Recover the amino acids of this structure.
């Protein structure tokens, strides 16, 4: 990496290490967050000509942008259309790719010159939001590990979770050869029941649907030990079969004996380097009222934008989510999604993706980025 990159990485790691136990709602950290976000924006503006021309079309530059809220968020679809990287892509330590569920030939690519920042961003929040009351837990994983899918950010996430916080009894129940080993998972869960040791189940949201279908067909149900918990990620949209999150969490209780307050959904994207979490477990452990909203670590921020204009909406109003992630130093510190949601005093509520032409502002932003490519 070039000198500026190395200094920037050190600065970001310093911020992450200093505020690893803090979250994105802590306003006292805003001045430091703002300064670092602007530094990253300047680096990306100068280091990626595609992004620079996109910003120029929106009349934004390091000379005019003085607040992190004014950094132009790049539409997440552009990770499929162009290279968003400041460092040479051939020197990347890792390339995370989207699933290509809508187009197998065109998958989004996120280049990471070093995984040091990505890993540092993942490990402390996982402990804080998933295992705030434990140093370790037996983890059973329903999705592929990193050695099965090296281009999956989720696979690396799951592997790091087991590496840092899993007991020696932890296991993955997915392989290249056999796929999802449901019978093996059933056997492991029965052993956990017998020993009375709590477990953490982790996997993509729809993997649970398939496993619960299997349990239903086989007449299986489990009474998992107290403090067991379930982690899911990815959501249920875009699948041929419609299942609501309310149905899924009800099934978790029926088939695993795990209440909603010990179920946690993680919001992550290939295009981001940090993850956001339900506050269920963290608030339950503290006692008092359990909070269902999502929140991110101190090195992330959120804006909710009007789908037509991409201007910020009023607090509590529904709009498109734009994420600001300091760990996204090599690509785009600001990423515009097609996810709808709204903010509360406790975090944000995710409502799902827009449909068709609802996100006109997002479509315009994509058109501008594509126009920049064709005009150069």
């Amino acid at each position: 990496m070039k000198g500026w990159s190395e200094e920037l990485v050190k600065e970001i790691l310093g911020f992450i290490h200093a505020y690893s136990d803090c979250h994105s709602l802590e306003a006292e950290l805003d001045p430091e967050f703002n300064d670092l976000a602007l530094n990253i924006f300047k680096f990306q503006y100068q280091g990626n000509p595609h992004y620079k021309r996109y910003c120029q079309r929106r009349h934004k530059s390091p000379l005019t942008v003085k607040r992190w809220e004014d950094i132009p968020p790049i539409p997440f679809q552009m990770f499929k259309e162009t290279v968003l990287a400041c460092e040479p892509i051939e020197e990347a330590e890792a390339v995370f790719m989207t699933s290509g569920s809508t187009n197998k030939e065109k998958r989004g690519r996120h280049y990471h010159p070093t995984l040091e920042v990505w890993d540092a961003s993942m490990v402390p929040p996982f402990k804080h939001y998933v295992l705030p009351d434990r140093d370790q837990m037996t983890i059973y994983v329903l999705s592929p590990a990193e050695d099965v899918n090296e281009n999956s950010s989720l696979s690396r996430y799951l592997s790091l979770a087991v590496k840092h916080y899993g007991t020696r009894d932890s296991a993955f129940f997915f392989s290249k050869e056999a796929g999802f080993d449901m019978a093996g998972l059933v056997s492991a869960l029965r052993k956990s029941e017998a020993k009375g040791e709590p477990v953490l189940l982790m996997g993509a949201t729809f993997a649970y649907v398939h496993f619960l279908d299997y349990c239903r067909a086989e007449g299986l149900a489990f009474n998992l030990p107290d403090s067991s918990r379930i982690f899911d990620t990815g959501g249920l949209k875009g699948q041929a079969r419609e299942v609501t999150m309310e149905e899924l969490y009800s099934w978790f209780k029926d088939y695993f004996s795990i209440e909603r307050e010990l179920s946690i959904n993680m919001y992550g994207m290939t295009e981001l380097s940090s993850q956001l979490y339900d506050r269920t477990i963290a608030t339950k452990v503290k006692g008092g009222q359990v909070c269902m909203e999502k929140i991110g670590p101190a090195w992330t921020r959120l804006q909710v934008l009007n789908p037509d204009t991409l201007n910020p909406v009023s607090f509590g109003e529904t709009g498109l989510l734009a994420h600001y992630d300091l760990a996204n130093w090599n690509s785009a510190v600001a990423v515009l999604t097609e996810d709808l949601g709204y903010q509360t005093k406790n975090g944000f509520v995710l409502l799902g993706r827009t449909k068709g032409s609802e996100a006109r502002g997002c479509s315009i932003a994509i058109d501008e980025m594509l126009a920049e490519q064709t005009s150069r």
In short: The chain is about 35% helix and 20% strand. The radius of gyration is 21 Å. Residues 123 and 160 are 7 Å apart (CA to CA). The mean pLDDT is 91.
